[in-house]
C-alpha cells in the first residue's frame, strides 16, 4: 500500500526539526523541503544560472555555490525579488519533493517544511501536523541556536505565516513548550496514532 503523506511544519525555533528527527528514528521516511530547496540550486542546476543572471555573481561563493546570506539580503529588501525567486524555485522544489516522497516505504511519510502552508506544499499531504511554540520561546531558541539578533528573528517570523494561519490548516498540533523528552513522548504518541490511520484519516 502506498504510504500517505503527513506535512510537518512550525515557525522558526519551534522544534519541528527535533520532532522530525524523532519520527525518523521511529523508521518514518522523511523529506525535508529545505534540503530540496538546496538541491535545486546546486552548481550545474538550471535554477542557479537563472539566479546569477538576475542578481549577478555577488550571490555566489568562491567555490561556485550559492551564497544564501547574500541572496537572502537581496530578497528581504525587495518584495518583488522575493516573489520572482519563489516563482522560479517553488515548482522545482515541488518536483524534487514529489520524487523523493515516491521512494517512501514506511506506513506514512513526512514532508517537513517551514513554509508548508505559504508555498502550497500542504496540497501534497493528506494531513498536517503543526509544531507550535509560544513566540518568546521561538525568539529565545533561534537567537541562541543561530547567534542572530532579536530583530533578525522577528523579520523572519513576520515573513512566515502567523501562528493562527498555520494552526487553521492543522489536523494535529504538538505544543512544544517543554524539554526534549516531553517532545519525544508527544511524537511517539502521535506516531502510534498515525500507524492506525488509512490515507491520513481515522
What is this structure, in a nutshell?
The protein has helices at residues 16-25, 33-39, 46-55, 68-77, 79-101, 135-146, 150-159, 163-168, 180-195; strands at 4-9, 29-32, 108-112, 127-132, 172-175.
CATH class designation: Alpha Beta
**End-to-end Cα distance:** 16 Å
CATH-defined topology: Rossmann fold
Sheet with most strands: 5 strands, parallel
Average pLDDT confidence is 91
Helix-strand topology string: EHEHHHHEEHHHEH
Shape: globular
Radius of gyration: 18 Å
**Biggest sheet: strands side by side, in what order?**
2-3-1-4-5
Spans of at least 5 consecutive residues with low confidence: none
Number of domains: 1
Instruction: Please report which band the strand proportion falls in: under 5%, 5-15%, 15-25%, 25-35%, 35-45% or over 45%.
Output: 5-15%
Portion of residues in helices?
A: 40-55%
The number of E-state strands comes to 5
- In the CATH hierarchy, what is the architecture at level 2? 3-Layer(aba) Sandwich
- Count the DSSP helices: 9
CATH level-four homologous superfamily name: P-loop containing nucleotide triphosphate hydrolases
**Sheet/helix structural class:** alpha/beta
Task: Describe the structure in your own words.
This protein is of the alpha/beta class. The chain is built from nine helices and five strands; from the N terminus they run E-H-E-H-H-H-H-E-E-H-H-H-E-H. The chain has a single domain (about 5-195), classed as Rossmann fold. It has helices spanning about 15-25, 35-40, 45-55, 70-75, 80-100, 135-145, 150-160, 165-170, 180-195; strands at about 5-10, 30, 110, 125-130, 170-175. The model has no long low-confidence stretch (mean pLDDT about 90).
Amino acid at each position: 500500500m502506498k504510504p500517505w503523506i503527513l506535512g510537518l511544519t512550525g515557525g522558526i525555533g519551534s522544534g519541528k526539526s527535533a520532532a522530525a528527527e524523532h519520527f525518523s528514528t521511529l523508521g518514518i521516511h522523511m523529506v525535508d523541503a529545505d534540503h530540496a530547496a538546496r538541491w535545486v540550486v546546486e552548481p550545474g542546476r538550471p535554477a542557479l544560472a537563472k539566479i546569477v543572471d538576475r542578481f549577478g555573481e555577488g550571490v555566489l561563493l568562491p567555490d561556485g555555490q550559492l551564497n544564501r546570506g547574500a541572496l537572502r539580503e537581496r530578497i528581504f529588501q525587495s518584495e518583488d525579488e522575493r516573489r520572482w525567486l519563489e516563482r522560479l524555485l517553488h515548482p522545482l522544489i515541488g518536483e524534487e519533493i514529489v520524487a523523493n516522497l515516491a521512494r517512501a516505504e514506511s506506513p506514512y511519510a513526512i514532508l517537513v517544511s517551514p513554509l508548508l502552508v505559504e508555498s502550497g506544499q500542504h496540497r501534497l499531504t493528506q494531513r498536517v501536523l503543526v509544531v507550535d511554540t509560544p513566540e518568546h520561546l521561538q525568539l529565545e531558541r533561534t537567537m541562541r541556536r543561530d547567534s542572530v539578533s532579536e530583530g533578525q528573528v522577528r523579520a523572519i517570523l513576520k515573513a512566515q505565516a502567523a501562528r493562527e494561519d498555520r494552526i487553521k490548516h492543522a489536523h494535529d498540533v504538538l505544543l512544544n513548550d517543554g524539554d526534549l523528552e516531553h517532545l519525544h513522548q508527544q511524537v511517539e504518541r502521535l506516531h502510534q496514532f498515525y500507524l492506525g490511520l488509512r490515507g491520513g484519516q481515522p
